[in-house]
């Protein structure tokens, strides 16, 4: 499938007309949903940068990445990871593709699975494991993944833990498509909200997140640094 790659301050992002179509043509692999925070983290964390560079699909999840592309003369369709993941779940129901969920607290995970069982009653969910595991449980989770052969594996452990975890373990099920989905389970479970559409349209989703989760302020200090780096690069 046609897709081109551009660099956002040295970190690649793939440009495509339709990301679900890209997913349909993937044999297996790793999907990364790139936002500004992740770009800034990857510039400091060589392991994360290398994982993103090797990922099979890197979608422009965040407004900063889209604005950067526009600034550099590329037309980028923003693809929020949570929306792509929901489209993949719809596809999984339509085509009877088995899915596996890993991540979030046990309560969130249960509510999230309930949500999808109501929304998509024929979705083949072959496993759901919370994201707070020790080494022994981790081995059991990996054995379950390997035995149940899911087509899609959604991992919600937060950035960069989920990307590192996927890179470390994806060989247990190389034909699956593994995707890090951050806080999506919390949203699907109904314990967190997404920003209203009007805020997304004017690129203020980050402000909504900050209001909902004020403890994020320290992580978000990288946003002005991103703008500064872009201007410096110019
Ligand atoms: N999480 C988890 N295990 C951990 C750390 C985090 O399952 O060891 C979950 C957490 O409960 C939440 C998600 O990972 O559901 C992280 O969400 P967040 O919104 O922080 O994601 P990010 O902003 O990093 O993409």
List the helices and strands and how they pair.
Blueprint: E1 4-8, E2 11-15, H1 19-24, E3 29-34, H2 36-44, H3 46-54, E4 57-60, H4 63-71, H5 81-95, E5 99-103, H6 106-119, E6 125-129, H7 135-148, E7 152-156, H8 161-169, E8 177-180, H9 184-189, H10 197-201, H11 205-212, H12 217-220, H13 222-233
Parallel strand pairs: 3-4, 3-8, 5-6, 5-7, 7-8
Antiparallel strand pairs: 1-2
Keyword list:
about 230 residues, alpha/beta, Rossmann fold, two-stranded antiparallel ribbon, 13 helices, about 15% strand, binds uridine-5'-diphosphate
Give an overview in words.
With 234 residues, the protein is α/β, with parallel strands linked by helices. It has helices at residues 19-24, 36-44, 46-54, 63-71, 81-95, 106-119, 135-148, 161-169, 184-189, 197-201, 205-212, 217-220, 222-233, and strands spanning 4-8, 11-15, 29-34, 57-60, 99-103, 125-129, 152-156, 177-180. A hairpin with a 2-residue loop joins strand 1 (4-8) and strand 2 (11-15). It is globular, with a radius of gyration of 17 Å. Bound molecules: uridine-5'-diphosphate.
């Amino acid at each position: 499938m046609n897709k081109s790659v551009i660099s956002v301050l040295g970190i690649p992002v793939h440009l495509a007309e339709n990301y679900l179509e890209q997913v349909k043509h993937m044999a297996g692999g790793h999907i990364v949903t790139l936002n500004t925070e992740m770009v800034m983290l990857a510039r400091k964390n060589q392991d994360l940068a290398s994982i993103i560079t090797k990922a099979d699909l890197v979608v422009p999840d965040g407004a900063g990445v889209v604005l950067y592309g526009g600034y550099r003369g590329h037309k980028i369709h923003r693809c929020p990871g949570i929306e792509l993941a929901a489209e993949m779940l719809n596809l999984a129901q339509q085509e009877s593709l088995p899915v596996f969920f890993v991540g979030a607290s046990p309560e969130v995970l249960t509510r999230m699975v309930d949500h999808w069982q109501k929304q998509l009653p024929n979705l083949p969910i072959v496993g759901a494991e919370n994201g707070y595991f020790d080494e022994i449980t981790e081995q059991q989770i990996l054995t379950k993944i390997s035995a149940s052969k899911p087509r899609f594996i959604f991992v919600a452990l937060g950035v960069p833990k989920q990307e590192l975890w996927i890179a470390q373990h994806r060989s247990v099920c190389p034909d699956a498509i593994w995707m890090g989905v951050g806080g999506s389970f919390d949203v699907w479970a109904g314990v967190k909200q997404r920003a209203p559409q009007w805020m997304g349209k004017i690129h203020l989703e980050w402000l909504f997140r900050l209001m909902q989760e004020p403890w994020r302020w320290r992580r978000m200090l990288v946003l002005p640094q991103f703008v500064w780096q872009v201007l410096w690069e110019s």
